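Aim 2 progress update. The chain analyzed this quarter is reproduced below.
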Amino acid sequence: MIAVQRAWQQARRRKAWITLALLLPLALAAAAVAVRLAGLNLGTAIALPCLLLVVGIATWKARQLDRRWLVRQLDNHPVVQDSSDLLFASSDTLNPLQLRQRARLHEALGRTMPDLRPRWPWRHLLLSWLGGLLVIALALGWPRGGATTTTLRDPAAVDAVGAVATRLQSSRLQIQAPAYTGQAERTQTALDAKVPQDSALSWSLRFNGTPTTAALQLHDGSRIALKRDGEQWTAQWKATRPTLYRIVTEPALVQPRLYRLDVAPDRPPSVRVITPDRTLVLASPNHRQWALQFEASDDFGVAATAELQVTLAQGSGENITFREQRIALSGVGPATLRRFARTLDLAALGAQPGNDVIAQLHVRDNHTPKAQTAQSTSLILRLPSEEQVLGEAMEGMVKKTLPAYFRSQRQIIIDAEALIKARPTLSAEEFVKRSDAIGVDQRILRLRYGQFLGEEAEGAAKPPPTSDSLPTSDTPTDDHDDHDHAHGDEHEHAAGGHDDHDHGPPKAEGQPVFGSATDVLSEYGHTHDHAEAATLLDPQTRATLKAALDQMWSSEGELRQGRPQQALPFAYKALEFIKQVQQAERIYLARVGPELPPIDEGRRMSGKRDDLGSRTLSIAPLEAPDPAIVAVWQQLGETGNAPDLDALSTWLGRNQSRLADPLSLAAAIEELRLTPDCSACRATLRAQLWRALLRPSPQVQRREAPDPMAQRYLDALEATR
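Predicted structure tokens:
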């Protein structure tokens, strides 16, 4: 059986080699024709798929010699006696006679194994190679004679004196990117390229003619001279800007082309903050360290070291001082994506309670000669002041000492949660009674906070809040000791079922009536019923406090109905808004020093106003589209009109900075310049120019004249005035 497998594999290999030998000349001939017609670049691009196709066909032909083919070939041998299928059958399915016949076949094939390899088709191989070589010779111009042979083959390739016209035979573009990019030097045959900015480019061109001069003509009018070095023409240029260029020679090229060179500028690095997850961090009283982590990325690499700028802001109000410190950090990870981490020791920085610690990372890339820099967003760590810490510590003590007269929003939440836990041990009537009592406390607190928004208190008349009672960041606003609010009165009012706005018996004549805006104004000196006039809070803080009052109102409603579980979400939101009001004291802004011109001491106190410019800002008018360019656009739409391409090129040089893709417009101009009769080129240029034109500003539309019925209606309106 091993001998059969070996002969089978030899037959398959022979079939593959025969197929390769037959098809290889055809593939080479196709590549030669492509090189002759479209140049070396396209010929190389066609040759590779052709070779892959030949290999695929050879493999497919070899696999066609399967087991059925093998059985047929073995049956043709006399010693097999049409029994070769027994060699591949399972022993379990054969009877004793078939097993004996298979053993005899093994013995016979072991002595004389037939040659299964197909024969070489020498005649077909000879015809294939002769035909392929002939096509290759004709495609590559072999044999080349004198001017007579060239004239018969291509009359346009010979000029008036019989010299061969200039054609680009081969090209090579060497690109050496700046060292900081880390890109290796590369060489390509295509003259279109996209390179990093400041790359060194080197062209090496070969022509099949003998031009006297050659140069690279850029689309802005400048030229790069080509120097002759034997058969090669070379030039060097530093890619500082994107451009279009074409090869110009004397005599001119037969088939000139326009090439595009895109230059990718080096982008500055970018910084992302990983830790912390917010720009403002409110520290706890026992906060000792602050962990920071950043991620910096760049297209060509970030510098291995960065600088962390730490600013300590001390004081409050207008007496704020700043102290800066810079810390060098080393990054980890690949050059294009580095991570920088640092844990700040607040004690080492000198941070005290009530201070702000501001951190900002500054990174730079590897750009030369001058590195590009970037910085992260400012991260702020706000340390609580001693007054805030003491206020929170005293809050629990005051609650235990005066529970009937002092309730904060946090205490209301604690009481509601305690009542929910004690619900199984209380009767339904007692549970509702306690919930209603907490609701009364919520109402008292809502009224106290409402005074800061200019709202009138409900119940007995009380003096308006003074400036000392306004909420600040140093004094928690959810802890007031306004003992003039009688908590017992509130319970009595709730039990008696009186209206919430019952202000008691009428006042005697001459006494101020509670709720009268004029009396309050005359007695206290301000309009207490106007929110904007009755508070010193800024609009944002006032809006936050108003949202807290709305949540307190919803919490109070649920508590008064005996549903403390439903009241907790509103109470928590009210507490969150109150804390926001407490913390709204200071916002850190990076200081920018003024850059004022030096003062001329000789002109001080002289009264001279010479050379002083006007302080009135003039309104810059919107630039209207260039009429000449509009005329070119109109000429492109009219068949037979020759557009002024020189004027269009001049306009493009002045306005390419504001265009999204100036090279596409320049390419369309050059294409039309080379082929003036190309209608498709005219349409392409017109479309590119339409996108480049400035859109006129919208004008006021004149109202259409009314119809007779509408005019009568307008006249009637005019008569009633």
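Residues 2-38 form the longest helix (37 residues). The radius of gyration is 47 Å. These observations will guide the mutagenesis experiments scheduled for the next reporting period.
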